[in-house]
Design the sequence.
DNA sequence: CACGAGACCTGTTCGC
DNA sequence: TGCGAACAGGTCTCGT
């Protein structure tokens, strides 16, 4: 690297939670809708979860991208007969560019288009996965409700919360329980709702549940708004990190009460909260 | 059922 | 300066 004419920005890895995936989908939609796939290269074998590479090569060529969508943290690329599902996991990103440019070290899958453009799946840590399925609804059937879906009410949320006796933080991050929340937005939402991350879900009141759902929607929408502000998708690193109230603010003063933000480990994930604003019990 | 630990991976930052 | 440890946006599986 060094002779790249496009002056590549030293961008830190993106944060693929729901808002980041939504931002990527919004940028990809105008960029690749209508493209016809001619072939695909899987550069890291395990990237392709299903089907086999042989079957992928048989089914993909000739299919045109009809629309793009998102379900939780999954990118959905709807084709004529199949849907390409992409999950970025911890370190994924997507790139659209001319098909004759040199590939980059962390490129794991490439989809070539008839237009001589290509879609590249970048994935340094190799956790990301790609699926080609005929029935996306079936493939994603185990996911919980979308928090931004208006049909998901705080009453339903309250019922679901009290059906478990789990710590709030890991429960909110459980994609079967609620789809799309990641480590950052969960910490931020719990702080905004003034709920302790280890609070048992069955001890929540209807008012807590209502405040929590409002907080979840607030941080997700703000995240989307901040990332959506980047027009150039290649540099789409939004600036929601400037709004963090607790995430990665260990030892710093809470903006609300001045207390020191604490960091604990919950479910093997760094968890940040304000010990004063977020009491264990009411 | 709930939870912790280990896997899967590479790159960056931290602490001595 | 150097080097190993710790840590990072996610999810799956296994044992207790």
Sequence:
């Amino acid at each position: 690297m060094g002779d790249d004419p496009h002056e590549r920005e030293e961008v830190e890895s993106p944060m693929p939670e729901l808002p980041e995936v939504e931002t990527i989908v919004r940028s990809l939609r105008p960029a690749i809708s209508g493209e016809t796939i001619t072939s695909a290269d899987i550069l890291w074998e395990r990237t392709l979860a299903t089907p086999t590479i042989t079957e992928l090569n048989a089914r993909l060529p000739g299919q045109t991208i009809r629309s793009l969508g998102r379900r939780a943290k999954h990118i959905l690329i709807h084709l004529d007969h199949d849907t390409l599902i992409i999950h970025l996991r911890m370190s994924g990103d997507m790139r659209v560019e001319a098909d004759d440019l040199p590939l980059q070290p962390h490129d794991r899958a490439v989809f070539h288009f008839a237009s001589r453009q290509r879609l590249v799946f970048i994935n340094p840590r190799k956790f990301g996965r790609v699926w080609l399925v005929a029935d996306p609804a079936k493939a994603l059937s185990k996911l919980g409700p979308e928090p931004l879906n208006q049909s998901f009410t705080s009453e339903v949320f309250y019922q679901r919360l009290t059906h478990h006796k789990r710590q709030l933080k890991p429960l909110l991050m459980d994609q079967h329980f609620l789809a799309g929340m990641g480590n950052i937005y969960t910490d931020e939402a719990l702080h905004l709702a003034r709920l302790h991350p280890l609070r048992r879900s069955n001890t929540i009141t209807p008012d807590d549940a209502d405040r929590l759902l409002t907080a979840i929607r607030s941080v997700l929408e703000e995240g989307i708004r901040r990332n959506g502000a980047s027009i150039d998708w290649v540099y789409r690193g939004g600036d929601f990190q400037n709004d963090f109230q607790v995430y990665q603010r260990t030892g710093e003063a809470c903006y609300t009460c001045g207390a020191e933000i604490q960091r604990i480990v919950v479910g093997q994930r760094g968890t940040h909260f304000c010990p004063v604003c977020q009491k264990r019990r009411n």
